[in-house]
Amino acid sequence: MPLLLLSRMKKQIIYSLLVIFFCAGNLMAQQSKLTNYSRSLTKNGALSFDPKLKPFYHGVASGDPLTDRVIIWTRITPDSGNFSSKTVNWKVATDTSFLNIIQSGSVSTDSSKDYTVKVDVSGLQAGTTYYYLFGYNGYYSLIGRMRTASSDANHLRFAVVSCNNYEAGFFNGFKKIAQRNDIDAVIHLGDYIYEYEPKGYGDSLTGRFVEPQKEIISEGDYRTRYSVYRLDPDLRTAHQQQTFISIWDDHESTNDSYKDGAENHQTNEGDWQIRKGISKKVYFEWMPIREAADNKIYRKISYGNLMDLIMLDTRLEGRVKPPTNFDDADVPARTMLGSTQYNWLINQLSTSTAKWKIIGNQVLFSDMNVGFGAVDAQGQPALTNINAIRQVENLFIDNWESYPTERNAILDSIQSKGVKNTIFLTGDSHASWSFDLNKRPVVYPNPLSLNLPTPSALYNPLTGAGSVGVEFATPSITSANFDEAVGATATAQFEAVINNPIPIPGIGSVVYNPHLKYVDLDRHGYFVLDIKDDSAQADYFYLDTIRISSNNERFNRGVSTANNSNRITAITNLPATNKVIQQIAAPLNPPTKVTGLQATQNADAIVIMAYPNPAYNEITLNYALNTKSQTEIQIFDTKGLNLKTVKLGSQSSGIYSIKIDLDNLPTGIYYYQFITNGSVANYGKFVKK
User: Fold this and answer.
1) Residue 219 CA to chain centroid, in angstroms?
2) What share of the chain is helix, strand, coil (3-state, %, to 5)?
3) Given CA atoms 625, 623, 545, 241 in this order, what sign does their dihedral have?
C-alpha cells in the first residue's frame, strides 16, 4: 500500500491503542453520599436473577482440578438478616441423578466470606467426570459438572479465555464453551472483572451496566462487582458445566497494577497495599481456586506424563514498576516474577517429566515490534527517530519486553536445560497472536540492524532455528478490539503489515515481526488448546457478535506445534479432532423435587448484600428486580421506630445499588426493610459505628 496512506493509518492506530489497551488516566466517577442509584439494564426481557435458583442465585462452580480432588463453589443469598452463620450441605456423585453418591458433607459460611462456600473435595479418581450440588434450608442448587486431572491421558482439551468485560458485550463465548462436552478445563488468564465505573470502559449501547456506580475500591465494592458478573446466565452456565483454572491479571485489582502500585490507583483512593489485599481476598472468595498462603496464585497442575500446567502471577507477586521508555536500560534488572517465583518457575520447567510444559501467563511474553508505525510531527515515517519510535513502542510497555533481563534468562534456561515443548498461553491484549519464542528478532531504532537481507543468526523465521517454544495468545471474550476503535478497514491494514514485508526506501522489504505466525486483531472469542502426544494445537473460535445474545461462532484457524519442534509448524483450516468420549452435560435447572419457590417472600426482588457492616457514615444496598416495581427502603431502630424512609419510586427490571446517608443516626444497632410494591422483599440488620 502507499507509504503515506500507511503512515496516516498508523497514526490513527497509535491513538486508538492508547484508548483500547491501556486506558490511561483516572476514570473514577465520584458518587454522592446521597441516594444515588443506577440501572443495570436487561435485554430482550431477560431476568436480573433467576428465581428458581433461590438462594443459589450465583450458581455453582468448580476449579483447580488435581488427580484426586477438585474445588467446588457456590454462594447463598439469605432471605433476610444477613448476619448469622449458615450451614450448607454438599454432595458429589458419578451421575446426574445422584444415585451413586461418593462424597458428602457440610460447611459453614457467613458474612466474613460474603456467604460464599468453597469445598476441596478429595478422594476422587483421576480423569473422571463427577457431578455435585449444594443444599440449604430445603433448597437445592444447580447440579454442577466437574472433572479431575488425568494421570495417564493421551488427549487433553482446554478452552483458553481472558478479558470478559461485562459492559462491552454479551458473554456469548462462555455460552459456547458451556456447550462443549470434551473440555478438561477452562484456563482463564485474567481480567475476569473490570474495576471501572459504569460506562468507564465498555459499550453502553449493549445496555449492560455494572454496579456499584463508581470505580470499585472497598471490599463491598469488589464483592458487588463479582456478584453482577456471576449473575450473568452465560458465565454462570460456563462455571456450572466446566471446571476452571484461573489467574488474575490487572483489572481484578486495577489497571496496570504491579506489586507496589498501579496506573489506575491514585493517592485519594487510599493505601495501595490495602486495596491490593482486598482485591486478592475477594478474588479467592468468589473464584473456585484452592486456598493458598498469602493468597498466592502461581501453582502447577499436572496431567500425568502428557502435560504440566504452570500458572504464573505476573502482576501482584513480584512485578516492579515498568520503565518510562521501552529502550530504558534494564539496570538494575527489573523483575516481572520476583526471585522466589522466578526460581520456582525454572525449577518446574527443568524438573518436569511431562511431554508438554504449558505456562499460563497474563501478558505477552514475545516482543512485538510496532515501532515501524513511528511518524514525525508532519505525519511522515520516522523509522530512525527514537522519540517517535518510543511513542509507539511505549504502548506495549506493560508487557514482558520491559523486563528483558528476566525474560531472556527464562529463554536461556529453557535452551540450556534442554527443555522441550514449552508453550506460553497469554491473555490481556484483546487480540489473537501466535509466536515462535526467541530473543528480540529485530532491533530498533536503526532499520539497518534488522534481519536483512538474510535471517538473524539468533533466529531463522523460515526454519524456526533459534526458537525455543511457542506462544498462543487468546482474544478477548468481550473487551474492546482494534476495529471497535479505528474501524475494520484500518485494522485490516495494520493486521496485513505487522508480520509481512514493508517496503523501506533505500533498504528493501522489511519484516518487523518474523516470529509472528498468526494474528487477528478484530474478533472476539477464545481458542481450544488440543494436546496430543505428537502435537499441540490452538484452534481459534470467533463469535459472530457480542452486541446481542447469540449462539453462533465460527472456527477460523488452527495453529500447531509438533512434538520436539519448539516452533509453530503448521497453520490449518481444520480444527483438531474432538475427543472420542463426550461427557454428559449437567442439567440446566435445579432438581425439580425441591424448588423452594413457594417459600419465597417476593420472587421478583432480592437484596444481594448490604455493606459495609459495621457502617459509618453510609451503607450501600445491592439489590435486583425482575419486574417493574415501586421500591423504598425503611430504617428502624431496635425499638421499631422508623427513623428514615428512602423512596426510590418506580424502577424497571435490573440490578441496582443505593447509598444511604447515615450521618444523622447515632451509633447503635439498626434494621432495614426493602419494600417492593408495598410488600417486604427483604430485611436485615446492621451496626452504625
Assistant:
1) 19
2) 20, 30, 50
3) negative
Beta strands in 403-552 (DSSP E): 422-426, 432-436, 470-473, 502-504, 508-510, 516-520, 525-532, 535-543
The continuous run of DSSP H or E covering 104 comes out as strand 101-109
CA angle (316 as vertex; 470, 197 as ends), nearest 5: 105
Buried b (16+ CB within 10 A) or exposed e, 544-579: eebeebeeebeebbbbbbeeebbbbbeeeeebbeeb
Q: What CATH number is associated with residue 94?
A: 2.60.40.380
pLDDT in tens, 338-388: 999 999 999 999 999 999 999 999 999 999 888 888 888 888 888 778 888
- Give the C-alpha distances (Å, rounded to integers) separating 366 from 272, 470, 570, 604: 29, 9, 19, 50
pLDDT tens profile 395-444: 889 999 999 999 999 999 999 999 999 999 999 999 999 999 998 777 65
Read off the pLDDT of residues 481-522 as tens digits, 9 standing for 90 and up: 988 877 788 788 889 989 998 887 777 788 889 999 999 999
How far is 141 from 131, CA to CA, in rounded Å? Answer: 12
Q: What is the pTM of this model?
A: 0.91
Cell of residue 491, nine digits: 485494522
Contact assessment for residue 521 and residue 431, using Cβ atoms and an 8 Å cutoff: yes
DSSP 42-89: -STT--SS-GGGTT-TT-EEEE---SS-EEEEEE---SS-TTS-EEEE
What CA–CA distance (Å, rounded) separates 514 from 536?
A: 21
State the DSSP string of 311-347: E--SSSSSPPPPPSSTTS---SPP-SS-HHHHHHHHH
Rounded Cα gap, residues 596 and 52, in angstroms: 8
CA 460 to chain centre: 35
CB atoms within 10 A of CB 427: 27
Assess whether 342 and 242 both reside in one domain. yes
Q: Is residue 599 part of a domain?
A: no
Q: Give me the domain span that covers residue 628.
A: 608-688
Beta carbons within 10 angstroms of residue 35's beta carbon: 14
The answer as to whether 141 is a domain residue is: yes
- Separation of CA 558 from chain center: 23
Sign, CA dihedral 214-216-222-225, equals positive
What total number of domains does the chain contain? Answer: 3
Buried-exposed string 201-215: b where 16+ CB fall within 10 A, e elsewhere: bbbeebebbbbbbbb
Judged by DSSP in three states, 662 sits in coil
Q: DSSP per residue over 182-238, as a string?
A: S-SEEEE-S--S--SPTTSSS-GGG----SSSS---SHHHHHHHHHHHHTSHHHHHH
- The identity of residue 551, as a single letter, is N
pLDDT tens per residue, range 128-150: 999 999 999 989 999 999 999 99
| 5: nearest Cα among 329, 269, 355, 381 | 381
Grid cell 482446554 is found at 158
**Same domain for 159 and 118:** no
Say yes or no to pLDDT of 556 above 50. yes
Computed over its alpha carbons, how large is the radius of gyration of the chain? 26
